[in-house]
């Protein structure tokens, strides 16, 4: 049985409002698939009798395989926010691969999927319809997760040591507030800058700079949504920025508006 994983869904903008529109449950992968998979997830919503809702997301540096009725696809990493219109009621189930974890399945640079999608047939050679029916007809969430994991477990590639390396680098970018620029990452890891950039193009799909920036903006947006921000200078300092103007530029470049405009909206 896959264990449920709790935690706030960083990257979903206007989280407090979104929390009333949908539910998200995440499940840890089994030992068999955990080398490649970060977690499995299920989103449910019920907006019957309500207006459709526009959900905006800042993508994590992960490829996702999303199973939904008549819409199953593999999503690469987006370089900016993405918007999904949620209406009526339904559910989707997905696999969130570790950063770098999808490359062994794809066998080509993951940057080919950046800002794009692929079908199940293009990558795994099977039609999506029967897979959708099998997974989405499961009687409960745990069964859906078990079915989608069984699908993946039957198709596991050889372990690529670069997957572990890339995942470790990305976690460093996420957790170490000293990493604001690629040069900071180079200094901390000792890896050549060009080598790091090539590695991320092949395994992640976006640049190290993009990954570093989006994690800081994820944190900032969540803090704003929770009403924890009193001063932009204090927030930028806590996130590791040397000056708050740099933080504001980064926020605006990803979200499309300044932090103050986001808070007011």
UniProtKB/TrEMBL annotation:
TM region(s), chain numbering: none
Source superkingdom: Bacteria
Domain HTH araC/xylS-type: 146-265
SMART domains xrefs: HTH_ARAC
Stored SUPFAM superfamilies: Homeodomain-like
Keywords linked to the UniProt accession: DNA-binding, Transcription, Transcription regulation
Pfam families recorded: DUF6597, HTH_18
InterPro entries, per database record: AraC_XylS_family_regulators, DUF6597, Homeodomain-like_sf, HTH_AraC
Name listed for the protein in its UniProt record: Transcriptional regulator
Species assigned in the record: Brevibacillus choshinensis
């Amino acid at each position: 049985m896959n264990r449920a994983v709790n935690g706030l869904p960083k990257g979903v903008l206007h989280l407090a409002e979104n929390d009333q529109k949908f539910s998200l449950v995440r499940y840890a992968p089994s030992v068999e698939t955990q080398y490649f998979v970060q977690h499995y997830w299920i989103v449910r919503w019920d907006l019957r009798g309500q207006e459709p809702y526009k959900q905006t997301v800042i993508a994590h540096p992960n490829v996702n395989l999303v199973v939904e009725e008549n819409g199953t696809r593999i999503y690469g990493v987006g370089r900016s926010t993405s918007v999904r219109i949620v209406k009526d009621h339904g559910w989707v189930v997905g696999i969130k691969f570790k950063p770098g974890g999808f490359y062994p399945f794809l066998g080509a640079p993951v940057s080919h999927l950046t800002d794009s999608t692929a079908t199940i047939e293009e990558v795994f050679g099977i039609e999506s319809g029967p897979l959708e029916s099998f997974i989405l007809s499961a009687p409960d969430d745990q069964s859906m997760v078990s079915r989608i994991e069984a699908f993946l477990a039957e198709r596991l590639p050889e372990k690529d040591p670069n997957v572990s390396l890339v995942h470790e680098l990305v976690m460093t970018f996420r957790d170490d507030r000293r990493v604001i620029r690629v040069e900071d990452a180079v200094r901390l890891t000792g890896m050549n800058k060009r080598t790091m950039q090539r590695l991320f193009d092949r395994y992640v799909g976006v640049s190290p700079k993009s990954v570093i920036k989006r994690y800081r903006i994820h944190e900032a947006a969540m803090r704003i949504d929770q009403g924890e921000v009193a001063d932009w200078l204090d927030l930028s300092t806590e996130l590791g920025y040397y000056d708050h103007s740099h933080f504001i530029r980064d926020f605006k470049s990803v979200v499309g508006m300044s932090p103050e405009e986001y808070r007011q909206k």
